[in-house]
Structure formats: C-alpha cells, structure tokens
C-alpha cells in the first residue's frame, strides 16, 4: 500500500506516466579515493558554531540565526508557497494556531523556538512548522562499522526534501538545495566543556546526527509507515501529547544519556510522535545497533555481532528484514560497497567512498557526517550529486 502511494507521488512529482522499469538506475561501481572530499560531489565544508547551554534557552541560537537569517527566510517562504498550493488556508492556520501550542513543548524547546523566531524575524508559527517538517520528510543512510582493531566508526548521509518541489531546469529538489546553506556543525557546551556535537540545520532545534564524546554516536532515519509522523503531529495539535518529538528525543539522549545502554533504553521505550530508525553506536567494541520504532514501541533490535562476522549495521529507510522499495534500493548498493571495502580497510576514507557511490549519494543528499568516538573526530561535508543522478 505504502509503496504504491510513494510510487504514484514520485511519478506525479516528476511529471510523467513513467513505468518503474523505465526509471534509469543511476548506479555505479563502488567509488574510491573520494576522501579527503573534493571534486563535483563535494559542495563545501560545514562551519562550526557553539551553542552555550549555560545561556537562557531564548538566547542560545542568536549568533547562528543572525548569520543564517537570509537563507532561512528563503526556505521558509518556499515551504509556505508549497503549503499554499496544497491548502491555501494552511499558513493562516499555522500563524494563528501553532503559537498557542508553544507552551505544550517540553522545556527548553519552546523557549528556544521563540528565540529562533525572534532572531530570524519570522512568525513563531512558521518556525514551528519548519521544525515539524523534520518529523516527516527525512530520507537517509546510516552505518556503524567496527574496524579490525575494534574501533567503531559511525557515518551518515542526510537526505531531505523528497516531494517538496522538483526543479526541472536544474534537475534538483528545491528544498534540498535551499537547506544546504543552513547546514551547521554545532558544539553544545556547558561550563566551557563539550556536551555533544551535532550536524543540523539552522532553525531546527531537534537533532538528527550527533556524537557525545567518549560515550555514544547517534543518527536518526525516517521510517515510512501509514501510522506516521503526520498522525502523531495531528494528535499533538488536538491535545494528545504523550508522545515526544523525534528530534527532541534524539537531542535529549545526546545531552543527557551517560552510557550506550541508557541511550538504548530511552530510544526504545519513549513514546514518540513519529516512527523512526535509531542507529546507535557506543564506545566499546560491539556496541552498535539499529532500533526499529513505531510511534509507541520498539519493533526490532538489530545488534552488531562480530562473532558471526557482522562487523557493521547499515540502515536506510526500510525495515532491514524486508526488501526495500524497488525504486529506492540504496541499501544493497551500500552493503555491497561496505563488504567490498572489507573490515580490514574500513576508515573514514572508505566509508566516505561508500556514501559517495550512487545511488547512496543522490539528489536528496545534503550532507555527509563521519564520527569516531575512539579518535574524538567529527567531520561533516556538504554534498552534491551532479546529473545524471538518482532523484532519491
């Protein structure tokens, strides 16, 4: 059912009655020597900003938003235009209704969103809408691998913007391109010490990618489901607020969890607004798993098992025990390249090669992040996938 809906949406977006078997694969052999990043798939480095948790929540994002105000306003206007084309009254509802619900958000998220809105000079409801989008529109690839010495490496491509406007002239997703100037590396500090690092988008206060030094690494991928994030958000607006926003949960774990096991428990048992995959890495050999979540419960734990030769776990946006959507098989390409590289050769360089191979790299890819607990390394790069390249 969901596959058919997604396929119909894809064909409508791309503007033609294209049969699935006629869609070009845009695949390639596993790439090599792409790191350090350069060439046409590398769009630039990601700037680092400090978020001071000792400051009042309202003030924490001021510097970042003041520097990213112009591209944030352009993106919000584009989202508004899309919303108006679908439901002309939506933005009026957003501007009038959503601000009244700001007080229902757990501390400190409501105050932070107020600070972002004021710093950007944008209506509070529109910044709320901007944050809601991440609950339902991200499409990603995440992997945690263990090298032959027992060290863990965690990496991801963040893909975003599916169905949010296809630019025929430039063969790109409009929101994907508008997001790239908003990508920032964030160093969350308290008492002048790093609490956690994250790659995020200016204006979004939840977290999708992060590393807590010496403790854990964490990424979140969207999980497609008919009981999806839009249902949870609607329930929250209507007054049922037992669930936690997905990005808020991820951020809370990065900020507060003191161990891999504690993080695993929180990510497994907390009721959420949206289903998700949490890809979690620890600080000890063998500590890596994919947690498959519905909105209310855990459906599956998939843990690394090096005793059985399973030296990496890799997740895209489909339950790992089921086949992926036939027009979106990033998983097999990524698995093939990981196995071709091999455990003895795995490193930032070779994982970056995997994440640079089409269709793992695609028109939706905004950034690639590489994380290593053992070496305390955190790197992010803006990405591009020149034509010809898979739209998703």
From TrEMBL:
The active site is at 140 (nucleophile). Keywords: Disulfide bond, Glycoprotein, Hydrolase, Lipid metabolism, Lysosome, Secreted, Signal, Sphingolipid metabolism. It catalyses: an N-acylsphing-4-enine + H2O = sphing-4-enine + a fatty acid. It is found in: Lysosome; Secreted. Its EC number is 3.5.1.23. Residues 140-378 form the Choloylglycine hydrolase/NAAA C-terminal domain. Residues 45-104 form the Acid ceramidase N-terminal domain. InterPro entries: Acid_ceramidase-like (IPR016699), Acid_ceramidase_N (IPR029130), CBAH/NAAA_C (IPR029132). Its main location: other. CDD domains: Ntn_AC_NAAA. PANTHER family: ACID AMIDASE, ACID CERAMIDASE. This is Acid ceramidase.
């Amino acid at each position: 059912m969901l596959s058919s809906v997604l396929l119909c949406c894809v064909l409508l977006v791309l503007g033609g009655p294209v049969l699935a078997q006629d869609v070009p694969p845009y695949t390639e052999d596993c790439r090599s020597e792409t790191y350090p990043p350069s060439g046409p798939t590398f769009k630039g480095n990601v700037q680092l900003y400090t978020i001071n948790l000792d400051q009042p929540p309202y003030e924490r994002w001021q510097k970042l938003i003041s520097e990213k105000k112009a591209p944030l306003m352009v993106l919000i206007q584009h989202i508004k235009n899309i919303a108006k084309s679908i439901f002309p009254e939506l933005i009026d509802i957003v501007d009038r209704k959503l601000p009244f619900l700001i007080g229902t958000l757990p501390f400190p998220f409501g105050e932070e969103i107020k600070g972002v809105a004021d710093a950007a000079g944008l209506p509070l409801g529109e910044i709320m809408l901007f944050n809601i989008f991440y609950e339902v529109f991200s499409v990603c690839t995440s992997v945690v691998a263990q090298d032959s010495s027992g060290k863990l490496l965690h990496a991801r491509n963040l893909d975003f913007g599916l169905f949010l406007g296809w630019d025929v002239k430039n063969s790109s997703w409009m929101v994907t391109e508008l997001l790239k100037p908003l990508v920032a590396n964030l160093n969350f500090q308290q008492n002048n010490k790093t609490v956690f690092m994250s790659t995020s988008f200016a204006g979004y206060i939840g977290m999708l990618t992060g590393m807590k030094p010496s403790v854990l690494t964490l990424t979140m991928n969207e999980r497609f489901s008919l009981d999806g994030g839009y249902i949870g958000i609607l329930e929250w607006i209507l007054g049922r607020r037992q669930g936690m926003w997905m990005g808020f949960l991820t951020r809370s774990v990065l900020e507060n969890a003191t161990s891999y096991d504690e993080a695993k428990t929180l990510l497994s048992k907390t009721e959420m607004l949206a289903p998700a995959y949490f890809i979690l890495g620890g600080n000890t050999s063998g500590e890596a798993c994919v947690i498959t979540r519905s909105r209310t419960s855990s459906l599956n734990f998939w843990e690394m098992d090096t005793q059985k030769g399973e030296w990496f776990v890799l997740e895209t946006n489909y339950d790992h025990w089921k086949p992926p959507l036939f027009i979106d098989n990033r998983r097999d390409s990524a698995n093939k390249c990981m196995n071709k590289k091999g455990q003895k050769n795995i490193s930032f360089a070779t994982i970056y090669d995997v994440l640079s191979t089409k269709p793992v790299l695609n028109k939706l890819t905004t950034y690639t992040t590489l994380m290593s607990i053992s070496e305390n390394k955190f790197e992010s790069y803006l990405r591009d996938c020149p034509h010809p390249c898979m739209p998703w």
